[in-house]
Amino acid sequence: MVRLRLVSAVAVIATLATVGSATPWPDSSDQPLSLEAALKLAKERNGAVRAALADLAAARARTHQSLAAFLPTLTPTAQYVSDRHQVDLGDGSKPFVQSEGWATSASASWRLLDSGQRQMSYMATRRAEAAADAGALQTLRSTLFDVHQQFLDALRAQELLKVSQGQAELARTILDQTKVRVQVGDVARKEILQAQADSLNAQVQALAAKTDVDNARATLKATLGWEAATSLPPLEPTREPSTPKLPTLAEVLKVGLAERRDLVSARRRVESLRFIKLRADRQAGPLLSLDARYDQAVSPVSLEGRSVALTLTVPFFDGGLSRAQAEEAKQNWISALRTFEQEERTAGAEIEAAYNAVETNANRLGAARAALEAAQTNYQAAEEAQRLGASTLLDVLTARVTLATAQSGSIQALHDFVLAEVRLRLVTGQPIPGEA
After folding, report:
1. CA gap 125, 127 in Å, rounded
2. Where does the record say this protein resides (predicted)?
3. 94 domain-assigned
């Protein structure tokens, strides 16, 4: 069941803590791979997830750098000097003079006041870190959704292959029955030609289905970070889904636009660029700073120095550089703001489409199950009638095609419904199964 709820900001480092230890590969290719195991592998091995985690760590380091600008610096220095040079005394003698020893000192400095540049830099990096945090979580969720989609696609292909193989077997059975009836003179010999053609077509469809399985499994392996030399085991079927009870579309839109991590990340980027713009505006005008400094030389002689400097800097002429930089920062902020506005509109359309897809696929799944049950009953009746000579080959072939269509439709409806639920979670910013 789909549950939509407001969620607080997620610390992605904690969310991705499971990435530290790798899950071992299955000991046997006969061991089915469950969706839960596939999701765990993707969290541990997918390169996009690992890269997003590194980007977040880099953003946190940049925040620490901007915070360090508010703190004093203390720099001890120790230097050992060995100096030897020749001196011309003017009387023909040129003795060598050598000196050596340690020179030690320490200096401390602290910017006590500025015109707000440090504060703006810190606020910009904080917003950028929040954007990276939300972006990392969105990358994780998008990757987990890709795993759901590709796992279901591979499972769908796997199940459709079974249907195709079953249909090929049924076609061979019908061919055998037709041959028997021709031998006893119950039907004309030309009936064998139709049965043979149908059997061969079923074999072709089974081979095509096998190709679909191979392609889907290869795509899934790449997303999971599966070793290329290791074959992917059979996939474990998904659990039967429950019928969702959805809130209204208006409620879903409200939650989704507020909670989607990609939109949260975009909002924080806009805020970060706004502070960068404010800092550029400030740097284009007069700047005031107050700095304190203390120096202490310990050896070879003891010296002490203290200073406090109040500095006013006025950019009288720089060729328009500072104003151009401020204009660039302003336009970057405007560009990000307009992009975010369009991203919100696109996200709203995605949420509405995903919401409708869940409702539609729930109804479709129920109809597909009923159609499959009816087709199975119909085929059994047609096959028995043909065996007893009470129906024609065309009746059985028609029933077989109807059964194959119903089986394929049921498989498609099941996997489309499961994926629609996961997609709705993704586009509304809700946790994806396998995330925690």
Report:
1. 5
2. Cell outer membrane
3. no
Rounded to two decimals, the pTM is 0.76
Q: Is 129 exposed, middle or buried (0-12, 13-18, 19+ CB in 10 A)?
A: buried
Q: 300 preceded by cis ω (within 30°)? A: yes
pLDDT in tens, 169-184: 878 887 887 787 778 7
Dist. CA 233–CA 158, nearest whole Å: 12
In-domain check, residue 433:
no
Residue 338's CATH number: 1.20.1600.10
Number of independent structural domains in the chain:
1
Q: Does residue 309 sit within a domain?
A: no
Does residue 127 fall inside a structural domain? yes
pLDDT tens string 62-106: 999 999 999 999 999 999 988 888 877 777 787 888 888 888 999
Three-state SS for 78-109 is EEEEEEEEECCCCCCCCCEEEEEEEEEEEEEE
